[in-house]
Design goal:
binds zinc ion; about 500 residues; alpha/beta; 8-stranded mixed beta sheet; 7-stranded mixed beta sheet; binds manganese (II) ion; binds ligand BES; single chain; elongated; about 20% strand
Length: about 500
Amino acid sequence: MTNRAIKFSAKTIDLISLKTDCVVVAAYTGATLSDEAKQLQKLSGINIKSLYDKGEFEGKSAQQFTLYQPTKGIAKAIILGFGNKGKIKPADFRKTINSIAQSLSKNSVKQTTLLVDAIAVDGWATTEKARHCAQTLSNAAYSFTRCKSKKTAKSTTLTVVYGTDTTAKAKKGLNIGQAIGDGMNVARELGNLPGNICTPSYLAGEARTLARKHKSLTTQILSEKQMKALGMGSLLSVSAGSHEPAQLIIMEYKGAAKSVKPHALVGKGITFDTGGISLKPGAAMDEMKFDMCGAASVFGTMNALLALQPKMNVVAIVAAAENMPGSKATKPGDIVTSMSGQTIEVLNTDAEGRLVLCDALSYAERYNPQSVIDIATLTGACVIALGKHASGLFSNDDDFAQTLLEAGVESGDRAWQMPLWDDYQPQLDSNFADIANIGGRDGGSITAACFLSRFTKSYKWAHLDIAGTAWHSGAKKGATGRPVPLLTEYLINKA
Ligand code: BES
Ligand code: MN
Ligand code: ZN
């Protein structure tokens, strides 16, 4: 999957004796050099400051200037711009590290030394800096190769020495960052896999594999027959038109005593969303293979937890199904009964995410969870409201929402809270059942969340609509791995 492994370490470094493929030193705007850049200037005899005078380098964030063989032991040095010293924002720092990560992802560099640990970033301490370096670099090492017949990229390891900070805090940061970066890559790989490979059964297989590999994880997969016995008529109405059977995938991470109540993650895992009988238009329909990115983020987060082993319990529930038209498919107007007993009029078979989630959310009750977060590429309306930068956050508990918003800011994976007011609920009224599965065009992401709220009354719950944030379209089409950083941040802070 990740075609390049990365190993991080922190070491005491002396530029005089350093032997490395590549060293990265910082410089700022206003012809200001970092101590490391000054030292390199002295050792190499290259006048780095003069680059500013000649207009070759300005020190703006993410700007790079390469020096070849500045000293005997150093093959290449990159002067990396970080912008205005003393005014570096987390987002600028991440952008800058990402630019260097892109350069390093070329396979020629096997070993690199980053001397960026002394840079002051607004509001960040040692741990955050190390962590975001590791997260960004791990992420940049990913590329999707599985379905290419020629695997050009050779699998090599990039060894990254992160600065001279060898404190436990820096090491902890590197660990967390790598776990999150790798977790995002797991989510991206699952998201990018096409619908003919990544089916509900495929996802179930991934859970079984994960459980085989890790003692602290157990899994249980419910078949359609078992779901039927539980009364999950809503979830099953989505897979009815498909040859691929739905799967309810439960993974339990056990890092604390049995008596400790778990946190629950519930992922929408529509492995392909055609819209069903309410068929989607053809344009960009291929992107509906990403409709399982909520589920993918749950897998990615479980992977991160397995790497970090926090002392807590987490239960993951993935509602996996394929939404297809067919002679047995659910029709507009059909009425189904959910596990909660509430009847649902399916006015639009393309509003299928909420139909699988509501039964998975009812199922979550049996774990008596401390908190429940569902993650779903739920509505196009959310993309209209927030664009592709923030995930939509809805919650029945404002303190919980605040905690999640903060986890988003901390991890560089932001969400924005949307209202879940009762005023919107009547839009879901049905003449024929307890509730309709659509609420009209107005506030489409809100009425979708309102639908879910009818099934989550017994616990502290939040819903993340990741329709805008889960993947990129266009030339860089591909899954992003969001919101693995937000979810992992939230959970490890709870441990
Ligand atoms: N998976 C889609 C939401 C989606 C659409 C995400 C486009 C990202 C891009 C979801 O199942 C869906 O089809 N939602 C409908 C709901 C409508 C029928 C009420 C939508 O958003 O149009
Ligand atoms: Mn749909
Ligand atoms: Zn969908």
